[in-house]
């Protein structure tokens, strides 16, 4: 039995213990929050992808499986030519920090692009580039290869985004900027006016910068295509992504192979001075004959620049890689693209639709045309 005096001390002790626990919990929560903030500002997991452990000259000797056989469920081991360096450097850090401050999204980060360090840092050609993703980070479509978030009704557009984007780009001193966007099927014009306004704001602050827009299909609405094509941009890009047979399986059902070709063709009709561009992912189970046909279809649609790169499974929820295509095979497609008459064909395992080496070359073409 607890006496009155003991009860008094017991209550005091409990009060002290509760205060100590509360203080400890608050301190712990503060520490956790501090760690979260540091992690948010620091490098992501993708930033720590290491260099290959095999030198380039030994890539041909790699004896790992490059293609998943029918019925196999396991993921293929990453071959050495798909391992990239850690992003670093002053330019990289500067762009990353300012993007966070202005709450701007980039497809470089959202799509986990392996070339982020090279593009943001300037790379060997010194043409510093970045790819800004407009209209938020949530898409109304659900393509099975893409890691961008999806929703039927994303957040409303930020009316200040065109101005904020233009201000940021002007301060970076970039030579070439790529604007891309999520699909916004919830908007009457698909967001085409918002993108066009951003292009105009950028050109207003820096008339010499080259602007590429990697845009959706706008459900095939040609009035939206015209809005973008006549906005003052230099390169109109829209990705076909894969071969015709795989399109319903790889892309959202609202995307259409023939519609993509039509959009690219009409963009040139609205503005003869545009360079048109598209991209194909390899490694999804396509055949050589299907890749060849897709390249021919793009040329017939008037597309001048083409990129081909390796499909990389972004998460376990997305399509698995069927095949890792060798660098030699990518070289074959580069040669084939040149034979078909593309002004520029960028083909390689790590090449993406907004690849910096391509932008360096396209910049040269645009300067010659002006």
TrEMBL record:
Binding of [4Fe-4S] cluster 1, residues: 108, 113, 119, 354
Entry EC number(s): 2.8.1.8
Protein origin, superkingdom: Eukaryota
Limits of the Radical SAM core domain: 124-343
Protein name: Lipoyl synthase, mitochondrial
Cofactor notes: Binds 2 [4Fe-4S] clusters per subunit. One cluster is coordinated with 3 cysteines and an exchangeable S-adenosyl-L-methionine.
Principal localisation: mitochondrion
Family: Belongs to the radical SAM superfamily. Lipoyl synthase family.
Known catalytic reactions: [[Fe-S] cluster scaffold protein carrying a second [4Fe-4S](2+) cluster] + N(6)-octanoyl-L-lysyl-[protein] + 2 oxidized [2Fe-2S]-[ferredoxin] + 2 S-adenosyl-L-methionine + 4 H(+) = [[Fe-S] cluster scaffold protein] + N(6)-[(R)-dihydrolipoyl]-L-lysyl-[protein] + 4 Fe(3+) + 2 hydrogen sulfide + 2 5'-deoxyadenosine + 2 L-methionine + 2 reduced [2Fe-2S]-[ferredoxin]
A single cellular component GO annotation: mitochondrion
């Amino acid at each position: 039995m607890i006496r009155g005096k003991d009860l008094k001390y017991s209550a005091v002790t409990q009060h002290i213990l509760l205060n100590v626990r509360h203080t400890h919990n608050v301190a712990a929560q503060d520490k956790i929050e501090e760690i979260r903030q540091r992690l948010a500002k620091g490098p992501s997991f993708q930033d720590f992808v290491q260099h290959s452990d095999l030198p380039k000259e030994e890539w041909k000797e790699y004896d790992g499986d490059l293609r998943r056989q029918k019925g196999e469920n396991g993921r293929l081991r990453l071959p050495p030519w798909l391992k990239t360096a850690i992003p670093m450097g002053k330019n990289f850090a500067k762009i990353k920090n300012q993007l966070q401050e202005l709450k701007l999204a980039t497809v470089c980060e959202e799509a986990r692009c392996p070339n982020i360090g090279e593009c943001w840092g300037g790379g060997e050609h010194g043409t510093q580039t970045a790819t800004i993703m407009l209209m938020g980070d949530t898409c109304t479509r659900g393509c099975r290869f893409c890691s961008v978030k999806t929703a039927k009704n994303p957040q409303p557009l930020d009316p200040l985004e065109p101005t904020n984007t233009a201000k940021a780009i002007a301060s970076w001193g970039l030579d070439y900027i790529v604007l891309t966007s999520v699909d916004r099927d919830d908007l009457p014009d698909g967001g085409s006016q918002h993108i066009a306004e951003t292009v105009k704001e950028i050109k207003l602050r820096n008339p010499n910068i080259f602007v590429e827009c990697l845009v959706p299909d706008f459900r095939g609405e040609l009035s939206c295509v015209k809005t973008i094509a006549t906005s003052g941009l230099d390169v109109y890009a829209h990705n076909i992504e894969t071969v015709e047979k795989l399109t319903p399986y790889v892309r959202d059902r609202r995307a259409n192979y023939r519609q993509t070709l039509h959009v690219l063709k009409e963009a040139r009709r609205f503005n003869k001075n545009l360079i048109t561009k598209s991209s194909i992912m390899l490694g999804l189970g396509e055949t050589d004959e299907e890749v060849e046909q897709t390249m021919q279809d793009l040329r017939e649609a008037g597309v001048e620049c083409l990129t081909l790169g390796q499909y990389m499974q972004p998460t376990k929820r997305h399509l698995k890689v069927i095949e890792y295509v060798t660098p030699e095979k990518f070289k074959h497609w580069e040669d084939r693209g040149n034979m078909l008459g593309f002004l520029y064909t960028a083909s390689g395992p790590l090449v993406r639709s907004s690849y910096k080496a391509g932008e360096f070359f396209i910049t040269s073409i645009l300067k010659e045309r002006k």
